[in-house]
Amino acid sequence: MRPKLFTLDNGHRDTVTDKTLPKPARQFARRTPPPAAAEDRADATVTGPFAGKAHPGSLLSAGPLPLREIGRILARADRLEPEGAAKRARRLAHRRIALLFYEASTRTRTSFELAAKSLGAETTLVSALSSSIEKGESLQDTGLTLRAMGVEVIVLRHPQSGAAEVLARAIGLPVLNAGDGTHEHPSQALLDLRTILQWKFGGKTPTLTPRTLRGMTVTICGDILHSRVARSNALLLPRLGARLLLCGPPTLLPEVAAQLLPAPTTGQIEVHHDFEACLRQSQVVMMLRIQKERLNNLQLDLHEYMAGYQLNAARLRNFAPQSAVMHPGPMVRGLEITSEVADGPQSVIEKQVANGVAIRMALLVRALKAGKP
Ligand code: MLT
To answer: Rounded to an integer, what distance in angstroms lies between the CA atom of residue 339 and that of residue 354?
Structure first.
């Protein structure tokens, strides 16, 4: 049967009726669009009493983080993770942390919250649908309001690329970027790195150098165009010597992605469209979902997509039987990855989730210690 062409245009025309698609893929294509993006733009003028440079405890992008600093974050995660609950809960006792979420999140929000709470901090969740954001309050005003209430760190997720930087420059507090539009998701890249290092080296985190991941090929496959996870990983892994293959159909993978790294590194980024050829060369394969909420009239044939880019058991067995399988979540089972693979022996997806808590503990401690003796 000739596959139908689906229009995934931000949900304005949910025309998916094709019963031949697996159920999760049908549900995926029918999902309703998110609320309209907030007004704050990445190039917004930052003014006000605290306007200036971002606080040094901020984490806005994976790109500028020196390897030595990344090593310190990983080492801190290694120390905090096994620590006894009572000792850990004294580390940030009664410090105030706000989780400011303008977009849906399960893993990132919960892991930041659990991390903060296990360090003894007080957390407050501000989400777009239950706050003055809904009434049109700007990001900067919301940030200043939280600051006036004694909040010391803001964890921000926002649909606009660059929003974390705008907020950080406006409020003078540490801002942790929990995903800004299609720009970056740096804490995800750090937890992905921890997962890759554990898989390659076992329990002990090695010293990070431009050669730590030399000889390793990592494939990231899927909707690279809209993926902040892919971008943050691309700004990180090649600096440790990894060869990064970005893979997907041309509509979801611009050729310029190969130029993501601003300066030459020991590793490299390549753009490919043949998934099986990538799998054959990779020790790690990271699958991404198609970001329906950001597709903007882009047309995609889901049958064709799955035929070319789904990671299923046969493909994994035939082309990458030893590789680690990763996914930042949320997974659309039956579309980019099958359950057999997601729950199979090569999957380190649950380890990624667990590493999210450890890395975010380290980032919160770093945020509150930065600039202090
Ligand atoms: C993200 O927030 O970018 C996620 O972790 C990946 C996704 O939404 O597909």
So the answer is: 19
Please tell me if the CB atom of residue 328 comes closer than 6 angstroms to any atom of ligand 1: yes
**Which strand (E) or helix (H) includes residue 361?**
helix 349-369
Determine the pLDDT at residue 8: 33
* DSSP SS3 for 205: coil
Model confidence pTM above 0.90: no
Residues 364 and 57: beta-carbon distance below 8 Å:
no
Residue 29 has pLDDT above 60, yes or no: no
* CA 93 / ligand 1 centre spacing (Å): 30
Q: Which of 28, 220, 221, 229 to mutate to test the pocket of ligand 1 (most atoms within 8 A of CB)?
A: 229
What pLDDT score was predicted for residue 349? 98
CB atoms within 10 A of CB 86: 8
Look up residue 42 and give its two tokens. Answer: 């990445």
pLDDT in tens, 215-249: 999 999 999 999 999 999 999 999 999 999 999 99
Letter for the amino acid at 178? A
Q: Are 91 and 365 in contact (CB under 8 A)?
A: yes
| Helix and strand element counts for the chain (H, E) | 13, 11
* Structure confidence at residue 130 (pLDDT): 72
Rg of the chain on CA atoms, in Å: 20
Mean of the per-residue pLDDT values of the chain:
87
Q: Which domains does the chain have, with CATH numbers?
A: 67-185+355-369 (3.40.50.1370), 187-353 (3.40.50.1370)
Helix (H, G, I), strand (E, B) or coil at 80: helix
Residue with tokens 């989780």: 99
Looking at per-residue confidence, does 80 or 52 come out higher?
80
